[in-house]
Every structure is written in structure tokens, then in C-alpha cells.
Amino acid sequence: MKLDIKLREYQKAIIETACNNNCLVVLPTGMGKTMIALFLAMNRMEKFPRSKILFLAPTRPLANQHLMTFQKNLPELYADMQLFTGKINSSKRKGLWQTADIIFSTPQCIANDLKKNKIYLKDVSLLIEDEAHRCLKNYAYTYVAKNYIENSRMPLILGLTASPGSDKRTIDMICKNLEIEKVEIRSRYSDDVKPYIQKLDSEIIKVELPEEFKIINSYLKSIYDKKVEELQKRKLLFSRPTKKALIELQSRIARAVSSGNKHFNLLRGMVLCAQAIKISHAIELLETQSINSLYNYLKSLIEKAETKSALNLIKDKDFSSAYLVASKLYNENIEHPKLKKLNEILKNESNKKIIIFSQYRDTISRIKKELDTIGIISEMFVGQRKKGASGLSQKEQNLMIEKFKNGEINCLISTSIGEEGLDIPEVDMVIFYEPIPSAIRKIQRTGRTARLRPGKIITLITKGTRDESNYWAAYHKEKKMYGILKNLKEELEDTKINENQSDLGKFVKG
């Protein structure tokens, strides 16, 4: 069957590879991964007429999005397509599985049904795993893939991702879990991709940390240094004292204590880690976010202080001094210079579609307040409600995306929820309120623009802070990722050639 869809040359090349090999496809957001999946699904259904296709995505909205894409592009009676979710009871899912041709679901839902013997994968001719970088450890993705490889009579796997990460061990594990035989990599700089994308401008805007902010920083840094120094003297911390290192140390100590080791040195180490992590977070909010975020956080530490450890922390004279200065700035409405810069960037951009990404909901709230003053119609795009916090239901998220598409909103201020998967329309400008050290998330954010029309990326950086190290961390990780994938692609191709030569040798000898 031919569809009225013109595939791009790189899509054709990828489909040709994926027809006969378990394939990991690494392709930037918006470059047509779902279309590759659709045409490969058609190929398998024509080759194995009574078989099923299983399309997994990490969230229900994303699985539903893929279902709608298939329904939109395939003829009405081409196949029975079903969305499997936890909202459909397992008995009904069992019945639907018998009659469905293409199933869209989350891995958790399918894994649960497999464990209960409600469904079997023997007749599935293609397993598609979207956001395949999640296929690690004991995640349900891995369980389904293993079950599929063991039980399908005609197994073929397609893994889709914008970025599998920058660590060779992680990428190797993903490929092992999916039994990947070929890797197809494209970036916006690939020769066969360039004709289909638009110009992308990138700008870094740096701001100075004001003197009063530096005063707060000195108080917080004094507390942090004292905690770290004690951890080092107690022979507990040996690596560089980053937030990540402290969290890992805290986990190691917790495991030792829970297994029965109640030595005072470890118990004191637990306290010191917890205090240092809290102060590290406060420094991050001060340097990279907003006074609003910092003030609310310090205030919450004071209000929730019940344990001896927490009370000792807030009684520290440096903590009291930091809180007093932060309160003064908050009450005087003096804010982080990033907000002023954001105001300058956007005051004449009310006719453009924009996404601003930020890590924290407090910051997003403060950004919205700032944009309201200059007439930018914006909304906060956040994840679902958590205990004690505001949020959006999936229905509210979808409604907001529709308003954004229709032009009722021209700016979304988003947490990480806007990075992965969701069908957010292409935008003219993406603003990183702060750089992030993750190559995966950087690539996903960047992929929101410069697909069908020119786009721009703006990154706000506070000089001399972790903003700078985070920016370069993501840059080097992305560069490293493409190098690892290129080598992996060559290794897999060499392995395939050697296997074919070995088979030929056996045939000739025979």
C-alpha cells in the first residue's frame, strides 16, 4: 500500500536499515521518528499479515499522540488500533489484545499484563520503543524487550530517541537490552538532514551576579565549606564536593546504616550530607534562579525545621545572615538580573511563539509575573499535581497546548515536562533560563525550534557560577555522544560483516 506521504531521503535510508535489523535510531526532535515507525510497521504487517505491532512510549499522553499520528496517516480500515492504559481494566485489555493489530501503550501496562499472563508477544512482528534512552536497568521497557525477544516468532525491534546519553556504558546497555544490530544516527548537521531543516541561531547572554547576591552567597558558602570540611576530616568524602557527589555519599551512608552499622561517624556523616545538600541547593537558587525561589526555599527550611539537625542548621549565624539579606531583597522586589534580561529580550516579541525552559516551579511562577508586566500572553506549563504543589492534569496540559497552537498563548514557561515527546508545535525561540548539564535534555529542548522555519536558542548564564560549568558539560557530553555512536555504528557493521563471512565460510566448506 502506498500513502500520500513523501518520505525524506534520510528516513528512507533508516527504514531500509531497520527492515532487517534491530535498529536504534538517534534523530533530533521533530525530524520524523514516528513516520519511520509507521512505514516500518506497514512493512512488517505486509510481510506478516496476521501479526501485531506493539508501540511503547513512556507516558500515556505520548502513547496516545503516536496513536493519533497513525490514525491520521493510515487509511481508516487499514488496521484495528488500540490504546492500552491502566484506565482500561485488564480483562478488557485481554480481549482487545486478541483483536487489535497495532497496540499503543506504556511499558508498565504491557509488563503488568505479561506478568499476569493476560497477553503474549509471540505474534508481535515489530516492537517499537520510543524514548529508548529509558531502556535501562529493571525499567519495564527492558522487561518487555526481553520477553519479546524470547517469545516472538518474528522479532524485530526499533528503538527511537533524540539522545541515548553521553556515557558509553549506558549506550552499550541500551543496545544490549534491545539486542541492537544497527545504529542509525543523524544530527541537524548530517548531510542528508540539512536540506530539510531551517537556520538555527544560538546566542549566549551573560549577566553579572549583583553585590548583594554575592553577600548572600558568601554566607551560604561559609556553611557549605564547614560541612564539606568536616566530611573530609571524618574520611567520608574523598571526591570533589559537588551536589551529585554528596547525594551519592548520602546514599552509601544510608545503606551502611540500614544494614546495621550505627557508628557515630556514619550517623554524623548523614547529618552533614543532608545539611550540605540543602545549602548547595540554596546556592544554586541564588546563582541561577531568582530571589523569589531562594527566599521561599530558606523560609520553608525554617518553617519545617523539627529535627535537631535542621534546627542547628537554621540557627547557624551565617544562615540567619543569608536569610535576612534575602528577605530584604525579596521585600524590596529586587530580583535576579536574568529576569530583567528576559524582559528586554521579550518586550518586542509578542507576535512570536516562544518556550522558556526552567528547572523550578517557583522560578516559572516568577517569570510569568515578569512577562505579565510587558504584555506577553504566557502560561506555566508544568507536570501533574504533586502533594502540596500545584500542577496540571493531562487534560489541562492538552488544552494549553491547543491554545498555544491556536495563538491564544504565545509563550509557554515550562519545566522538563515540555522537553520530551509531547506534541508541542514548533516555536520561533527557545530560551534556556539556565543551562542544564544533561546532553539528552539539551538536545530535546533545542529540537523545539528551527524545523520548518528559522529558529533561535538563547541561553542565559550568570557569570562565575555553576551556569557556566553546566553549559560546557552539556556541550562536551553531546559532542562525546555522537563520537561514541559513530564508533558503535562502525563496530556493529564490522561484527555483521564478520558474521556474514563466517556463515559464507561454513557454506563453502559444507
Short description, anyone?
By secondary structure, the chain is an alpha/beta fold. It has helices at 9-18, 33-47, 60-73, 90-99, 107-115, 140-151, 168-177, 211-233, 243-258, 264-288, 291-303, 308-315, 317-331, 337-346, 361-372, 394-406, 439-446, 466-509, and strands at 23-26, 52-56, 81-84, 102-105, 124-130, 157-161, 182-185, 200-207, 354-357, 378-381, 411-414, 429-432, 455-462. It is built from 18 helices and 13 strands.
Q: Report the span from N to C terminus.
A: 41 Å
Summarize the biggest pleated sheet. 7 strands, parallel
| Global morphology | globular
Provide the low-confidence segments as ranges. Answer: 504-510
Find the CATH superfamily of the largest domain: P-loop containing nucleotide triphosphate hydrolases
CATH architecture of the largest domain: 3-Layer(aba) Sandwich
- Number of E strands: 13
Residue-averaged pLDDT: 91
CATH class of the largest domain, named Alpha Beta
CATH topology of the largest domain: Rossmann fold
Keywords:
Rossmann fold, disordered C terminus, 3 domains, seven-stranded parallel β-sheet, phosphoenolpyruvate carboxylase, domain 3, 13% strand, 13 strands, single chain, globular, 18 helices, alpha/beta, 510 residues
Could you explain how this protein is built, in words?
There is one protein chain. The protein has helices at 9-18, 33-47, 60-73, 90-99, 107-115, 140-151, 168-177, 211-233, 243-258, 264-288, 291-303, 308-315, 317-331, 337-346, 361-372, 394-406, 439-446, 466-509; strands at residues 23-26, 52-56, 81-84, 102-105, 124-130, 157-161, 182-185, 200-207, 354-357, 378-381, 411-414, 429-432, 455-462. It is of the alpha/beta class. The chain has three domains: 9-195, P-loop containing nucleotide triphosphate hydrolases (Rossmann fold, 3-Layer(aba) Sandwich); 211-331, phosphoenolpyruvate carboxylase, domain 3, CATH 1.20.1320.20; 336-468, P-loop containing nucleotide triphosphate hydrolases (Rossmann fold, 3-Layer(aba) Sandwich). Strands 3-4-2-5-6-1-7 form a seven-stranded parallel beta sheet, with helices on both faces. Helix 8 (211-233) runs antiparallel to helix 10 and helix 9 runs antiparallel to helix 10. The longest helix has 44 residues, at 466-509. Mean pLDDT is 91; it is low at 504-510.
